Structure formats: C-alpha cells, structure tokens
C-alpha cells in the first residue's frame, strides 16, 4: 500500500510551529476521505498543499478499491485532497496547491477511453509518466475551477533526482546522468520556493521547473490532449471520488 505522512503546522504561543503528523493511505478512498474530514476538524485554514507522493510498482497493481495503483496515487489521491481541503484553502487565500509531476509527461498523452491504462501493456516508466501527464492536466483544470477563490494551483517538475524509481527502473539513465543527477534537496527546491514565493500567487495553472514556468508540451513530444479526453479524465476521477 502507498502511505504518506502529512503534517499540520500549529502555531504555538512562542511564535514557533509544532508538527502534528497524520498518516493517510493514499491508495484508499476511505482513508483519503477520512483524512480530509479529520484535517478539517483540526484546522480552519490551509496555506499550502503539496501533493508529492509517488509510486512505480514493477507490475500492474490494484488498490483495495480496484483502481490501478499508480493512477490512484498520482491522479485520484491529489484530486480528492484538493477537493476535500478546498474550503480550508479558500479560508487561507491567497493559498497554494503544488502538484509534483515529472518531465516524463512530455512523452505521453492521456489515452482516450482508457484513462487508467487498463488496456495498455504495463510498463512502470510509461504508466508513471502517463499518470504524471494526467496530474498536470488536472492541475490546469483545478486552476480554472478555483479561479476567483484565491486558491492558486500549480504543477512542477523537480528535475531528474536520484530517487528509488530512477535507481530501480532506469539504471542506464542514472549511470549516464550521474554527473548532473540531483539530490532530493535539489529536487525539492522549486516545491519549497513555490510554497512561499510571491510569483506563485500572481499566476495559477502553470508548470514550473527550476523556479521558472515551462511549456506543458513541446513539438518533439506527445503533444496536447484533446478537450474530450481532458473532460473524460475529470469525469472519471470525480466518479471514482464519489463526486460525479
């Protein structure tokens, strides 16, 4: 199962903050809804939400709810967290949502009629990149839907960092890029920057890399997704979340 620790910063009398950890199984719909409900009872506002949990299973895996695991972690879970915590984000406006995606998304398009890639041959790298593409598209859709509320929604690409996924599934790439591959701290730089920089509340719906907005597609990549497929993705995720 995919688990991510979430923390709540609670202001203390001395002006410092204390971290209150809250566990959530991001592969479970019940756990996600329970977490957003618990968080809402604890706090009245949320300034920054970072969706950063990621998986790259070696074979096709289903969650307890029957959802493909990579899709559940990268696409469905962030959607539920944004939807469930939106009232607190509005209370803290201008607030920020930061979805961590991947440069691999440039090579993938959302498969119309098969947004969970159930009919595609499974490959850890391809499905990972495809779900990151879907997360980016949902970032743009959330930015539009939350327009005017003071909630800014961005995606970012941390660069090629020395993660478990790169070590396990991309050893040749890791060997070639060893001189330039990033540490976790370097990969997290733009995430932290977006959490506090004024530029992040002056815009919304952008894709960032190294503190700069970047194109979401390139001519040499897979290209843009059509409007019908983008709508299909949103509707499919909303239905899984019980919000259709």
What does this protein look like?
The chain is of the alpha/beta class and 244 residues long. It has one domain (25-240): NAD(P)-binding Rossmann-like Domain (Rossmann fold, 3-Layer(aba) Sandwich). The chain is 42% helix and 16% strand. The chain has eight helices and seven strands. The protein has helices at 29-42, 69-91, 124-145, 164-169, 171-176, 184-196, 199-202, 227-240; strands at 3-11, 17-25, 48-51, 95-100, 151-156, 207-209, 212-214. A five-stranded mixed sheet has the order 3-4-5-6-7, sandwiched between helices. A two-stranded antiparallel sheet has the order 1-2. Helix 1 (29-42) packs parallel to helix 2 and helix 2 packs parallel to helix 3 (124-145). It is globular, with a radius of gyration of 18 Å.
Helices and strands in order:
Layout: E1 3-11, E2 17-25, H1 29-42, E3 48-51, H2 69-91, E4 95-100, H3 124-145, E5 151-156, H4 164-169, H5 171-176, H6 184-196, H7 199-202, E6 207-209, E7 212-214, H8 227-240
Parallel strand pairs: 3-4, 4-5, 5-6
Antiparallel strand pairs: 1-2, 6-7
Helix pairs in contact: 1-2, 2-3
Please report the total strand number as a whole number.
7
**Looking at this structure, what is the CATH superfamily?**
NAD(P)-binding Rossmann-like Domain
Summed over residues and divided by their number, the pLDDT gives a mean of 89
Report helical residue fraction.
Answer: 40-55%
Q: What do we call the CATH topology?
A: Rossmann fold
Beta-strand residue fraction? 15-25%
Instruction: Count the DSSP helices.
Output: 8
Poorly predicted runs = 1-14
Molecular shape:
globular
In whole angstroms, the N-to-C terminal distance is 26 Å
């Amino acid at each position: 199962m995919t688990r991510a620790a979430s923390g709540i910063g609670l202001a203390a009398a001395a002006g410092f903050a204390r971290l209150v950890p809250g566990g959530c199984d991001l592969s479970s719909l019940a756990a996600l809804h329970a977490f957003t409900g618990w968080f809402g009872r604890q706090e009245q506002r949320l300034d920054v939400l970072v969706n950063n949990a990621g998986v790259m299973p070696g074979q096709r895996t289903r969650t307890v709810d029957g959802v493909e695991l990579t899709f559940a972690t990268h696409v469905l879970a962030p959607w539920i967290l944004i939807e469930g915590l939106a009232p607190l984000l509005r209370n803290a406006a201008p607030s920020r949502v930061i979805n961590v995606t991947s440069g691999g998304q440039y090579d993938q398009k959302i498969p119309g009629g098969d947004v969970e890639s159930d009919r595609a041959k499974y490959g850890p790298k391809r499905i990972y990149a495809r779900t990151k593409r879907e997360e980016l598209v949902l970032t743009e859709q959330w930015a539009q839907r939350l327009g005017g509320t003071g909630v800014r929604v961005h995606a970012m690409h941390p660069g090629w960092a020395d993660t478990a996924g790169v070590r396990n599934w991309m050893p040749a790439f890791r060997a070639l890029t060893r001189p330039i591959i990033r540490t976790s701290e370097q990969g997290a730089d733009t995430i932290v920057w977006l959490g506090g920089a004024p530029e992040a509340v002056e815009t919304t719906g952008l894709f960032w890399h190294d503190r700069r907005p970047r194109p979401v597609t390139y001519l040499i990549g897979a290209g843009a997704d059509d409007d019908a497929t983008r709508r299909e993705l949103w509707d499919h995720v909303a239905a899984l979340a019980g919000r259709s």
